[in-house]
Every structure is written in structure tokens, then in C-alpha cells.
């Protein structure tokens, strides 16, 4: 995995935020200025005074090369000095060895932070305001030349670290196991010995070159939920054996939720459990199925009846795969994205409000934000004790509608209907305002998702299905109901008819 470089004007909090990010990702943190000082045996103001800026920049370049190290060195978060990438060679070097995130802030924010430390930054010595204004003006174009940026004003360091991680698409989950979640291309896959890729025929067809370039033996299974069964899992076990996979091997699941669930399950049971990596290729699997460690397959009697919790070692989501995803699948996945927005990310909800065309042009951003919501919920409740039930928004009604439609409706289409129905109920019982319901329905429509139960589906059947889906003898069913955009509440409901009316 590649290094993370935090860059930007002095006072934006690169070191403070960098330490928090490194802590969250469980990787080392390096402050380049401290490396320079240690190497030189002098403080930066002393180096500047005795040797001048050009000599300081030489030391800085050398420290950067040393810190990054060789190609296989441990991934680190590296906070850079505010001018460390002014030299083209340093800029190229950093970009070739990692991702550069620029932290930006308004002049007033920086002034407030810097005025207490007058002697630490020799380039700003004297009249701070005019020196800083000039420096920002001079470097404006330079900072703008980096594609990834966040603004750090009016937020705590912790909030900014999370914002940075979302922008970078880098997380580490500690829930039933430890694993990294990365949004990025396949160069982020670790070098693995004795491994195998499991994929389905659609992905193998659309992405044959990408798969070939990985130079890893690949098993291709038939596509679709109807093949998420014991027969396919058995085929996977046999292939693992024929290909000499042992307890130290890792399998790569390259595909949608069906491939992820089955491969994860096959890995959980092969030789009492081997490692696996999830490379989700549908929107639904990126923002939902690949996160949380649930694996399994279907029985003729019902979906996901056999399974195990077996989190992957890494989830690597490359939004490029979504370019070949059939539109109906993409739209279906957007229902889960909207759900994540309603649960806790109003900004994500607002982006969805831009409509389907905008979404298609900004899929990586959508994936990054939506994954972050699910990651946070899992971290807060790894064992599904309470708040993870928030993820059920739209699902109590949605699952029942999906079932009664005999799966004519895609999962996301049914969930969209479920969200609209449950939002209307939430307004009727006084939890949400009508404007919240209107906002939810409007976003769903802009994404070409349905908001009403098809008239041909029987409401009695849907109510029956809701009861069966949950605990059969439970008096009430727990719903996750929207209260406002960004907030849901868990509510026990006994009168299911009232939900549908
Ligand atoms: N484990 C979990 O926590 C969890 C959560 C939600 C859903 N799921 C499971 O996920 C499954 C649904 O996932 P899904 O919607 O990804 O279905 P899927 O895996 O069947 O993929 C949908 C279709 O898209 C095709 N496809 C996949 N990626 C493609 C690409 N990049 N380009 C072109 N075609 C592509 C597939 O071949 C398939 O035909 C269900 O089985 C469900 O039970 C699991």
C-alpha cells in the first residue's frame, strides 16, 4: 500500500492530524521536519539561519527520500513541511510513492493558530499577517495543483482526520478482526504467494485485461444469485485444493456480493479458515456487502441461511470497475448510498440529490463517503448489539417487498420503496417532518429509484413477510426510522398495517 503525505500551508495541522490518521490506520507516523532536525542536529530556524533556505531544501529532499525508503518499506503517514514539494523532483517523488493530501485553511484560521508560535517558522518571522498572505499567494497555484484537498477550518483535529481518511479512501476496521479498507486501484493489492482469484463470468468478460495483468490463477464461476449455493462453494473448495492452497494462502474475491459472500465462506471453512481479500466490483458490494465480515450462501429454503463471520484481510474498492456495471445494478446500489446518507451523512445525501448523471461522473467520491458511513457504524457496534440496526433503514419493509415481488425487484429498488414507506410512517407518527419525507422521495426519484409499493403486490403478503423475516413470535418489530437527514431512531412497532397505510 502506498504512503500518505500530508501537505499544505503552515498551521493547517499536518502533524496533529497526521498522528491521528496514523493511529487510526495502525501505521507509523513521521514528521519530516523532525527527521531533518535530527539528521542535522539543529532546529529548523537554526539551519535556516546558518545555512539558508536552499541548503535547508537540500536536507529536506534527502530526508524525504530516506523516509520513504525502498519500494517494500512499511506504509507510513508522512507530514511534510509547507514547502517540501516546491521542487518538482520532490513533488514527482511523493506522487510516485504515495498519495498527497493538501490541507487548506482560510487566512484567519492560520493566523490564529500561528500567532502563538512566532519563532518556530523562520519564513514567517516578522509581520505574520503580511508574510503569511504573501506566502499563500505565492504558493496558491502550487497547492492547487494537487488533486486531493480538504479544508480544515472550524473542525477539531479528530474531525479533520476522519475527513482526510474519507478523501483518501483509507480506513482500518477493528471489528471481529483487523482489516484495512482502501478505495484505490489494484496496485494496492499486496504481493501474495500461492493465491487464487475467484470471480464470475461477467467480470471475467468485462475485465479480462485487468485480471490477466494480475498474473494470478483465476477461477471463474457462473454469475448470479441462483449460483450462490453449496454446489458453487464445493467447486471453490475443490479448486483451492487442486491449486495447492494451504493454511498460509489467501484467496481474492473479485466480484459483487455473491462472489464476496461465497468466496469468504469458502475461505472461512477451507482448512479451518484461510485469509481472503475482498475486491468488490458492484456499488452494492463496495458500500455494503464487502464490509462487516458476513459470508455465506443460499439454500433452496431461503437466502443466506448458511454462513459465517469471517472478515477479509483487506477490502480494496476500485471505482473503475463500476464503469461496466449494468445501469440497473448501479441504480440499485444507489439505494444503499442514499440510506447511508440518511443515517449519518447529510453531505452524501446532498450529493445524491445531484441526480444520476452527476453520480455517474463522481462514483469514487460517492463510494468513499458511503463506505465511511458503514465503517463507522460497524466500528461503533461490531457485534450487532444495538446501533448497527440503524443500517436496517428501509430494509424491514424493503425485504418483504423484495420477497413478495419474487425478486422481480432488485434489492436496492425494494429498499428504496422501503425507505419511502418507512419515512412516510415516521412522519405520520410525528418523528420526521413532511419536508424530510419529500427530500427522501425526491432524491430517490432523481436516481430513478421507485418510491411506492407496486399496486400488484398484496399488502397482506408484505405484512406477513415482514413478520416472517424477523423473529416469528415477536410482538413488535424494530424499525430504523428517519428523523432528519443524518439521523435515524430505532423504534419498536406492533401495528404493521399502520406502517403501510
Ligand atoms: N455479506 C453482507 O453483509 C451482504 C450485505 C448485502 C448483500 N449481500 C449479498 O450480496 C449479494 C448481492 O450483491 P450484488 O448486488 O453485488 O450482486 P451480484 O454479485 O450478483 O452482482 C450483480 C450482477 O452484476 C455483475 N457484475 C458485478 N460486477 C460487475 C462489473 N464491474 N461489471 C459488469 N458486471 C458486473 C454480476 O456478474 C451480476 O450479474 C446478495 O447475495 C446479498 O445477499 C451480502
Question: Runs with pLDDT <50, length 5+?
Answer: none
Give the CATH superfamily of the largest domain. Dehydroquinate synthase-like - alpha domain
The chain-level structural class is alpha/beta
Give the CATH class of the largest domain: Mainly Alpha
Q: What is the oligomeric state here?
A: single chain
Main sheet: which strands, in order across? 6-7-14-11-10-8-9
Q: pLDDT average, as an integer?
A: 94
Please outline the major beta sheet.
Answer: 7 strands, mixed
Q: Bound compounds, please?
A: nicotinamide-adenine-dinucleotide
CATH-derived topology of the largest domain: Dehydroquinate synthase-like, alpha domain
Task: Give the strand content.
Answer: 15-25%
Number of domains: 3
Examine the secondary-structure arrangement and name the CATH architecture of the largest domain: Up-down Bundle
Number of H/I helices: 22
- Strand runs, count: 16
**Distance, first to last CA:** 51 Å
Cα-based radius of gyration, to the nearest Å: 25 Å
**Which shape, going by the Cα principal axes?**
globular
Helix content: 40-55%
